[in-house]
Amino acid sequence: MANTKSALKRIRTTARKEMRNRAVRSATRTYVKKARTLMDAGEEAEAQAAVMQAISTLDRAVTKGVLHRNNAARRKSRLMQRFHSLEK
Q1: How far is CA 88 from CA 36, 37, 43, 81, in A?
Q2: How far does CA 11 lie from the centroid of its chain?
Q3: How does the average pLDDT of the chain come out, rounded?
């Protein structure tokens, strides 16, 4: 257990950030998974909307500092590659 006031405060703030980060990370995973399942099912129109939603949530996670921008860019790139291969 922490001894100083600043260490105790750091524990509290870390817990708050951890909760927020977990929620944002979970939402991004949910939307990416939804897009991938729709692509696998071959539903092109719904998949396009889901991909755009997933990209939006990835960008939001970068803005909040949950994901690194290169990590989000890589995920978006892979999603779009998969989507474009579906169109062919």
Answers
A1: 16, 18, 13, 11
A2: 25
A3: 94
The reported pTM is 0.85
Q: Under a CB-based contact definition with an 8 Å cutoff, are residues 33 and 54 in contact?
A: no
- Which structure tokens are listed for 48? 């396009």
Show the domains of the chain with their CATH numbers: 5-87 (1.20.58.110)
Contacts of 87 (CB under 8 A, 6+ apart): 44
Q: Measured between alpha carbons, how far is 50 from 54 in angstroms, rounded to an integer?
A: 6
Q: What is the DSSP letter of 78?
A: H
66 to each of 15, 48, 52, 70, 74, how far by Cα in Å? 14, 25, 19, 12, 15
Distance CA 32, CA 75 (A): 9
Confidence at residue 2, expressed as pLDDT on a 0 to 100 scale: 83
